[in-house]
Amino acid sequence: MAAAKKDPRHERGRLSEDAAVRYLEQAGLRVLARNVRLAGAEVDIVAEELGAIVFVEVRSRSSPNFVHPFETIGWRKQHRIARVAALWLARNSGPHARARFDVVAVDWNEGRPICQLLRAAFEVSWA
User: What is the mean pLDDT of the chain?
Assistant: First the structure.
């Protein structure tokens, strides 16, 4: 039986997350966890900045001909990230921790990642 081909998007996703972690650390955030999976959903990076717990979604693209990565976080994805965040906070920081939802966009240019950070990309109503 022939080995299954790897999807190049998975490798690019992993490389994009690695680039995002480096970028966030250089920006002063402290990475607490990666690829947190809870309740059937996932958040790419959990970090801390100035006492706030930051849940980070990493989005990448290989061509500028596609929509900007910041524009690809719909309400369903926001809801999934918020569900993970609520569970993570309950287990690790308590219900009164300050939380923020950021997005790191990673564009690939000649094999090099170019990262952009959008702080407070969306808000969540916890009620």
Answer: 88
